[in-house]
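Regression test attached.
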Amino acid sequence: MPSRVLFDRAFEKMFEQQFASLFRYMDRLSGDPDLAADIAQEAFVRLYQRGAFPDDSRGWLAAVAGNLLRDHHRSSRRRLELLASQPAELTMGAPPLSAEVEMLRDERRAAVRTVLGQLPVRDQQLLLLRHEGYSYREIGTTLDIAETSVGTLLMRASAAFAAAFEEGRRASL
Amino acid sequence: LRRVAVHLSEHDIGSLLHGEATLPMFVDHLAACADCTQKVRAARVADRITGERLAFLDHSVPQVSARSVMIPPKQQWPLRQIAAGVTLLFLAVGAASALPGSPFHGVLVRAVAALRPHESSNAALSKGVAPGHDAGGRPDTNSGVLFVPDSSLDVVFRQVQDSGTIRVTFVNESLASVNSLGGSRSFDLGQRQVVANNAASSGSYSISIPVTLRRVVIRIGPDTVFTRAGADIMTVGRMDGRGSFTLPLSAAERKSLTTYRIH
């Protein structure tokens, strides 16, 4: 069987196994599901065009996706950024019945994103990769750090996340 | 022997917690050290809570097939070049047609889409209405207007719709555009105003606005749903990660008013 056919089959299998995970990582990191989908797909396009699998494909994909996200942020200099997102005194139009549920979910999501955003990007990536099931080796490949450092860095990132959450909770009381 | 005598490091606890190290490596020490046992327990609880909190960030995974990303390298560049060429051609035609139209007022009324072969664009311009009405007035075809705006711009949708959205994007260009995606095919254009005649429409719209245009108002019926005044933007829509805004045309789907700032 031609090697290209074998590669295609292996690629399809990898895509089925890894796309959702890569999308979730990017979605959590960027906060933008559309952008996350674009980047995850682009990372797989690049893997396919590479024509061969790297030693650590999962780490390679996450690293490429991370670079794509960074490039996106760099090129969006005139991007509009959130200044304030507070409930306004004026609400236009009657909200739908499910708005309360949606609002609660949005509030929780916003709270987590705020806390996560207080951490350095590398700590965010460490936490998100770890909770997406990436191994220390894959995390090391993705973030270009020594595998032996991952455990320590993760524990500190986790502690910083918990502390920031607790601080936010106290502040809101 | 060292493992029994020395307390577990952060790396050890992390490795144990994350399945990178096995319990037998530390079991002797943990059996003898209540302090480290407590640290491992606390770290496990914290790890679980962190995982639960991060899960709040999740959106549903889009359905994408592997075949859609299996693009051979040689096919990709020509496609990009063609797309870039079409975009440049489009902009060049738009800019060239703007010059003779209205150089003093800075506004050009120019329809760019949904032109029927037998319909004269000059006739449409003389009425101040973008071409695009078909005989039955069916709102099932894409259409739009492209123009050079004056110092401010009001975009007015005559009617609230039951569905559909308006996507607003700021662009680094001098041309503004309002495009209908299956919605109204009729627009009235003035110097500082575009009116979409969207009665009985259920389609969506996209609006591109030069980022240098510092005063913009978008209204749906009597409601103002988007304003830009200088660097400040207030809208009932939501901004995505690329800086575009999505505004629902349905009153029921509008969010509370949110303020953004252009940096």
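Expected vs. actual: identical. DSSP finds seven helices and one strand in chain A.
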